[in-house]
Amino acid sequence: MSLLLIAQNRDLHSLKKQLLELDSNLDVDIWPKVEHKDRITFAVAWNHPKDIFSNYPNLNAISSLGAGVNHLLNDEGISKNIKLARLITPSLKSEMAEYVLNAVLAYRHHTTRYTDQKREAYWSKHSIIPKAQCAVGIMGLGEMGQSVAKLLIKNDYLVNGWSLSKKSIKGITSFTENQISDFLSETNILVCLLPLTRQTQGILDLELFKKLKSPSCLINAGRGQHLVEEDLIYAIDTGALSSAWLDVFEEEPLPANHLFWNRPKIMITPHVAAVTDSKEAAQQILENYKRSLSGMDLINEVSRENGY
User: Fold this and answer.
1) Pair 47, 128 in one domain
2) Is the pLDDT of residue 165 over 90?
3) Which of 14, 219, 274, 292 has an alpha carbon 20 to 30 Å from 209's alpha carbon atom?
């Protein structure tokens, strides 16, 4: 039995090394150099070529190399009989929490404005936005969302959360799916950490932005497809949103001629909010590989019906 690592434009040798250090008896292949395709029973994938998995007749489970799984769910070449899992590690959760906190602080302290002023040699002071005007609303209270919320609470921010079902988390005011208007009206800084499903695609639109408490800011570290890009540009240009901080985009890398680049109120980072650590990933991958061989449920197994 063999384990396959497949990710275009990514060096996977460190991950292979970590896996072999945990279990020297493992047989690990890195795509495209696969000697015996019929021996592959488990794969780890990110940004994989379309329909590639039809080449592996004995594949029974695939793990994403990150928290997102849409690249797997959208691949019609993956049999419904193949189990899917997502990868969530402690460092992913802590990095995401720190990323969001950094974005919140930059919004309050006008960091990007001062960066632009420095470039232009322009001296101008801006008042710090008080915490009382910075109620943070987190869309998606899964493991990532809860990690973000806990760090914000430690830093004395008022935190609201919106999810399909009501959550009981200390320090968080929880809103359910049918309470989204109430949630938005109590939120200044909107953080999107939702999974991408049919229901959440395009959820970040102009009508939603208009319901936020003023002043308002958007932080999107979920998926690029959550955002209606034209609506964000209109909201920024008309003042419906004060600013936006984006880490994910519908097309990545973001094209050089994209309108986001010339909007100073839109901060852009290249999908770096949380990056998988190979050592932590190897432990979870190995455990799921062994579980798949025994027919057990996988850690962080994905429900195709729910989309996450």
Assistant:
1) no
2) no
3) 274
